[in-house]
């Protein structure tokens, strides 16, 4: 079973890299992690209540705080810090990074919003 063995933050490049027990590394942008935050602010309180996040291109992660043995809290430069990223959710984000990102870009386009960057 695939499991996360390390998390490395590169603030200069605005990326977070997950290392897995199989030797694989997956890099994700801070913007991607911010727009897919598991918080109620982003996901809403039920299906159809998701809130499209805009203008997060320059967001960075300022801190990674462990939450027990099951999650981390990512503290973002835009002061967002309410989402708890469980290990299974981080794995899901990493494995579905490309399709999730394309979905996000399509939702931005549908909303008539242009990314800055």
Structure in words:
With 117 residues, the protein is α+β, with helices and mostly antiparallel strands. It has a single domain (4-110), classed as 2-Layer Sandwich (NE0471 N-terminal domain-like). It is built from four helices and six strands; from the N terminus they run βββααβββαα. The strands form two sheets. Strands 1-2-3 form a three-stranded antiparallel β-sheet. Strand 1 (4-10) and strand 2 form a beta hairpin. The longest helix has 14 residues, at 97-110. The radius of gyration is 14 Å and the shape is globular.
**Average pLDDT metric:** 95
CATH topology: NE0471 N-terminal domain-like
Radius of gyration: 14 Å
Could you name the ranges where pLDDT drops below 50 across 5 or more consecutive residues? none
**Number of structural units classed as domains:** 1
The total strand number stands at: 6
Q: Overall 3D geometry?
A: globular
Oligomer: single chain
Question: Portion of residues in helices?
Answer: 25-40%
Range of strand content: 25-35%
Distance between the termini: 37 Å
- The secondary-structure element order is EEEHHEEEHH
**How does the major sheet shape up?**
3 strands, antiparallel
| Major sheet strand order | 1-2-3
CATH second-level architecture = 2-Layer Sandwich
Structure classification? alpha+beta
